[in-house]
Amino acid sequence: MKLTDFPNEILKNVVANIPLNSDLARVTLVSHRFKNLTEPLLYRIVHLDAEPLEECPVGFIPTLKRTDQLIATLKARPELGRYTTAFSLRVTHFPWYQSYPQISIIRRMPGLRKLSYDPPAIHGGGTPTECKDLTAQRFDFSHVTNHYDEDGGRLWLELGVPLEIVAKHLWGPSVRKVQAEKLFFTDKFEHEHWLDQRRIRAGLSAVEDLRFLNCCPRIHGDSVTAFLNAVIHLRCFVFEIESPWEPLMVPNDPAHEVDLRPALLAHLSTIEELALSTTGHALRNYQPVQSPGSFVQWTALKRLAVPYATLSHAMLHEVLPPQLEELQLERLNCCEEKPAGPEDDLVLFRELAKNKEVCVPGLKRLIWWLQHPSAQDPNDHNLSQLSNVEGLALETFKNVGVRFEWISTPFFKDTPFGQRLYEW
Fold it and tell me: For the F-box domain, which residue ranges apply (predicted)?
């Protein structure tokens, strides 16, 4: 029996198991029949690496060969764009950020559901009206923040344009998730036009999942608060910064005051997952942080990741909601006037285990995250005692049905919560 003798339904299942787009493209060359079967899969997920056709001097925009080819193809055969449900774009040349033709591409993908920009164009506009089914958007500004010196983008950093770019995309009718990586917050920004008072009062944005990952140190509180106030019902909020918590919660300079608590409290009945974290360069001396308060009244909260210092050193069972299922605590001894030792940690663990059934009966997993020892004092005698504490904690929580994990890493993205929340 020949392969061509099988019905289309079986052949569709066969080509659907081809993992590489390059192999799918070869299948389209077999015959018109295989081309018709394969093209919907080939264009279902489109990733475009926008690279220059040739090197050119600074100030000139290189020819975008792959981009031009994709636009030309979608113009000639608009049915191909209707197959696309996920599109990711990676741009590597600074001048492109200013005027990359991203809208010309995604307008030809009306069935788009997931969209990723690395990074988006400065003047790219918001979500096209043609994309009525778009539910998730990701914006990665790593290339901008890593290369702005050599590419001439310092002015952009000082203006804080990425806030404006992200704000534009909160208002899509079906958008539920917005994820932004490597943002930089400054006191000069243009996002008020998109997060204006009328919209904030009305709470028009239907976004339920808002993630600010690996943000740069310069923080301006009003900008973050404006995003939180612009959402109706928030179910997931992640805010990770590369700076100490002191300027975030208890600033010495009122101009840079950031207190997310009032804005977050508006969502305490809907938030199911909350992650507030520092990473990498956060391990240097700073003042004690202000507690965000108890989470007992957060009636929907099931997954929580916070530095332990933000809980004002309270006993854990006193500040956690009863329905909480997973807890990741970040231990930052460098922010404490009198750093806690492993024996203090063990007291916390035993008290939580003792009161677990009464106060936090839903707890199934506890992750104790110690910032990487290489970032701390190598002579810290506490580090040598951690292995003993880990063994005792494992036994303590095993008896009450809680999975305990002790981890050591400098980066939030390498923690269990971070690995899941960074996924796209």
Answer: 1-46
